[in-house]
Amino acid sequence: MKKTNLLHNPTAGDNDFSKIELVKLIEEEGFECAYSSVKEDGWDAFDEQTDFLIIAGGDGTVRRVAKALMKRKLLEKQYPLALLPHGTANNIAGALQISGEARDIVVKWHHNHLQTFDIGKVHGIRDGLFFLEAFGYGIFPRLMKVMSKIEDEIGESVEEKLKAARAVLYDIVLNYEARPCKIIADGVDHSGEYIMVEVMNIRSLGPNLVLAPDADPGDGYLDLVLISEAHRKKFESFLLSQINGEKGHEINFTTIRAKNLKIVWEGKDVHADDERLKMEGTVEVNIEILRDMMQFMITDDK
């Protein structure tokens, strides 16, 4: 019997899974399951006999677990990760094509199909800064700032939260001032004035917005997405289609694949995944791709 450690965020998403329900579900499929709430101290004291870790939460919970694993020494055991998507956006699970009912996902863990997952490392802001989803400047970190101020005013359901975020983002795009940005990607200059600069490791970010449809978190490349003043109207149209629930309207901006980037942004709106970053003045940032830093258990038909 394989030993697992369930890492649960009990406040994520719609709170539709309790500790008891999750542990029972996992054990009924033949796995031995220890439980840890990521909201409690000591959750990251993993048993060396554990075969794999289970993350029940959203993208923020995955990032928290990744941060704990990255702090481990090279000689310490590194664990495969299994996901039970349980957050609002679940962009990471979407990139790995993990979706559906929890019981259907758990059954597939017996196949033990693994996919490697790269990490973006950011130099120049603070030590140890990394991202799983995206690092960027402009409208997305501004969205985070606005949403943090109105979170008590929006609905409780996942659908209401996503719709509110898209509507707020649309309002931001209408008025956000394009700013100069110096960008060198693998030695090629892409500098200009932009309302959004996103270095993406997966295909979507924020409220499930697919900005880099071909991004693959295991291919050794990052996808640079740039939206200039000339593309503002096109981006507005895309956001309206998302707000109105129109299917099949994917954004089609040029993405630049690169392994190493140098960026200088003339502004303060900066983020790494779901964290807004405080910048004192203009900072030159260097970004590199770190290969195969994590392994996720995926379905066998991916």
What is the number of independent domains?
Answer: 2
The percentage of residues in β strands lies in 25-35%
Q: What is the CATH architecture annotation of the largest domain?
A: Sandwich
Major sheet details: 12 strands, antiparallel
Count of runs of 4 or more consecutive helical residues: 7
Task: Identify the overall geometry.
Answer: globular
Q: How far is the first residue's CA from the last residue's CA?
A: 25 Å
Helix content: 10-25%
What structural class should be given to the helix and strand makeup? alpha+beta
Summarize the structure in words.
- By secondary structure, this protein is α+β, with helices and mostly antiparallel strands.
- The chain has helices spanning 19-28, 59-70, 91-95, 102-107, 139-150, 158-175, 232-243, and strands at 3-8, 32-37, 52-57, 81-85, 113-123, 130-131, 134-138, 179-185, 188-189, 192-200, 204-205, 209-210, 222-228, 255-258, 260-265, 270-272, 275-276, 284-298.
- Helix content is 25%, strand content 33%.
- The strands form three sheets. Strands 5, 6, 7, 8, 9, 10, 13, 14, 15, 16, 17 and 18 form a twelve-stranded antiparallel β-sheet that branches. A four-stranded parallel β-sheet has the order 2-1-3-4, with helices on both faces.
- The longest helix has 18 residues, at 158-175.
